[in-house]
Structures are given as C-alpha cells and as structure tokens.
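Recap quiz, item 2
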Amino acid sequence: KERNELDSKLCFHSSFAFGVATASFQIEGAWNVSGKGESIWDRYTHEHPERVFDHKNADVADGSYYKVKEDVQLLSQLGVNFYRFSISWPRILPDGLSNNVNEDGIRYYKELIEELRKNKITPVATMYHWDLPQSLQELGGWTNPIIADYFVDYARVLLDNFGDTVKVWLTFNEPLTFCENGYGGDDAPGGRSSGFEDYMCGHNVLRAHGMVYRMFDQKYRKITKGVMGITNVFPWIEPATTSREDQKAADAARQFMFGWYANPIFSQQGDYPQVMRKAVDANSKRQGFPRSRLPYFTAEEVEMIRGSFDFMGLNHYTTYLAAPGSGKISTKPSYQDDINAIITQKDEWPKSNSTWLRVVPWGFRRCLNWIKNAYNNPKILITENGVSFEAGLHDTKRVNYIDAYLRALHAAIYKDGCHVLGYTYWSLMDNFEWMRGYSERFGLYQVDYESQNLTRTPRLSAKYFSNVAKTGCLPDDYTDYTYNTD
Ligand code: PNW
C-alpha cells in the first residue's frame, strides 16, 4: 500500500516533496561586501528608514552570506527534500548588466549549492525575489521595456554558471506584490503610481518571464535536464455573501490578483483575463485617456508567453472576502479603483502577527480547486505557505497553522485530484520582513538578533515539520486542531 492509503494516518505519496524557503535580501546581509552592487531595497531602506518598522534595514539581516555550512545544517536537521532560495541579481551583476560578472557572487552560490548537494538537499532557485540592481532602477526599473532584455542576460549568466547543478528554476517571486507594492505603493522603489506603473511593471515582467522560458527551452533544457516555472501569490477570495453581486466581485478580484499573472501563462487562450482587460480599458476611456492604462501584448508576445511553464509555483497564506465597490471611477486612477471590490476579512478568523494574514485553512483547498478548473489541472509546487507569530520557541499556534493547512492540502490532492508536487514552508528562519523590519517572525528557527552570531534555535514547529518531512505523514498525536479544514 502507498503511504497515503494507510487509514490510520494522513500521509502524502512517497514522491511528494517537503522544503523550506528564504530570499536573498531577507537573509544574506553583507549588502556591500566582495563586489556586490546596490539593490533598490538597499537604497530604499537607507534613504527612507522612517518608512520601515523600527527604522531597520537588511545590511546584516541573518548574516547568511557568512553561514553557508551552518544554514545547510539547519536544513539537514529538518530533513527536508529541497531548499528554495533566491539569487541576488546585484551580487552576481553589480551594475545589473552582464558585461561585469562578480566572481565572488558566483562563488557564494556555488558553495551553497555544493553544500546542499553534499547533504542530499535539492536546490530550488528563484532568479528574482525583489532585489533589483539600483543601477537598473535609474533607467526606470521594471517600467522600462528594455529590462526584459537585461533580465534575459542575467538569466543566461545564472544558467551558464549553475545550470549543471540547479534543476528547478523559478523566474520570479510574486510579480503581483513587487509590481503593486513597489510601483503602485510604498515598497522599494516607492513608485506610488498605481494604475500606471504597476501595469507597466507587470507587462514587462510577463514578457521577461516568457523570453527567459523560451531561451531555457531552446538552449538549456536538454543539457541541464531542468524545469522552469514562475511563482505567483493567490490569497483565496470568497464572496462576502452568496449574492450574485458578491460572487461577481469575488471573481473579478481573483482575476485582478491571480489571473493578471496566471492567465497569460497558464490559460488555454493566453493574454490578460477578459474582466481585467475590459475594466481597465473602460475606466481609462472614462478618465479621458487616449489609450488603455493596461498595455497590450502583440500577437507574438501572447504566443511566446502562453504555455511558458513546466510547473506552477504557488504562494498561499490567507483568505479574503469580496463585495462590490462603489462603482464610481475616481479621477485619480488606481489598481484598487479598477478592481472595484471591497476586500475584507472576517473578525472571527484567527489572527497572526501580520495584519493581512488570518488563519483560514479551507481557503487553501478552494484556491487549489479553482486553479485546477481554470487552468486544466497544472502541476503545482507550493513555493510558500507560512505564518507569523510573536517571538518564542513554544509556537503551538504555528504548529496548528501548518498542520491545518497541510490537512487542507491533503484533501485537495487526494479527495479533489489537484496535481501538487510538493510543499514549501516560509520560512526556514526569522528574517527581514521588508517594510515590517524584523517585527514579524515566520521562522521554523528563531533568530536572536541581539546575539553576536545571530543564533538560530529550533522552535517546536521545526520539530513538528521535520517529523512531517521525514515520515511524509501528519502526526496523529496533535489533538488541539483549533481550525476547521473543510
Ligand atoms: C510573501 N497575500 O509575500 C513574500 O514572498 C515573502 O518574501 C514574505 O516574506 C512573505 O510574504 C511573508 O510576509 C506575500 O496577499 C504577499 O496573501 C502577499 C500575500 C502573501 C504573501
């Protein structure tokens, strides 16, 4: 009998993989060491400390640049099958351009990959987790179409140097988040031009992804025997009530948040979702613009981007409710305005330490089923799922969160037939939580930021997760499941 058929316990198929994730800017530190260039997050946290919680930055972070062996030991103790990390573009190319490769950057990631190999942990590498070289931001960053060519150059350097040892690639982490928060809001580089620059950013990211995937497919797949995908974030959106208006609002919100980046790549027909196309075109017209604020792909671009994946990376943390917005289009355009929905959460949903994150395990199952139906049941790798709570080692709330979300995932796979290859917990250890500084802790390992050597200590959740990763089964000796998973 397969593991997952034993009736006493909930188990995952033996081929199902467990891992944990981090991102370069959030853990490495060493921001200006050994030839590394400046990133937009270096610049932003240095120029605007007042915008970051506690005025903190990631100059030191978790010091992981100096702790390759130590960090891989943490992974090895967890017994995970893979480690999802990201590569810092300005550590590899200090000016963002491929005529100047920083050899020490190459050495650092080679050492990490080699250490993982020695410990039988599969590397899963993200090419871009938000730390754009500042020099490219000077040219407009992701709003300038030329960036797609520069991203291809960067990707080529990565595939040439690491393609023989890294077999699983993600081009981008959460374009929705870095385009919306970075170019429409307050994250680095602080564009605050919602309804314009966020759409330009998204457009160029989708083009860049497609171009890198085609290069990979034509020049690298055979020799490297690797696979490539992209990670998108999808919080489940539930209609606030069963009314038709709320259902319509929820559907539109899903298309604006997830469909924006998923439809062009994963749908049969390609291109932006129709509701999004129609809404932004109509609003732009009513606002007196001669053309849509949402750019158009050429027919060739639609074809290049359509189907540019071997699997889908998925980040899922929480669930929201949607109801129709006012319907009034303001004179100052914005993405929120275009969605035209009121997004809330239920008071009774358990809170985490992050304002946006409440514990709603059943939303995970619905999310996976929605993707299965919308995009013909693609192979999915859960690239992030996790929760923040206050500091402390006895984190039973985190154990309950992971357990409840894994139960929902188990049901999605074995009851509903969703095609999920593996699960990644965010994060291996506490780290720099962007605008929230170090105030929000997601780690299985606690990091002591007061100590000289940034001591990592396993939490109860590390023990729980390593048991799951090693056995492939959810333990049956946890009795306090406080969350409903149906
Ligand atoms: C993730 N949502 O972003 C990022 O990929 C990580 O770098 C970050 O550390 C982690 O969140 C925890 O904050 C998200 O709307 C952005 O559900 C938005 C959502 C979820 C995750």
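Residues 303 and 349 are 42 Å apart (CA to CA).
The first strand starts at residue 10 and ends at 11.
End of item.
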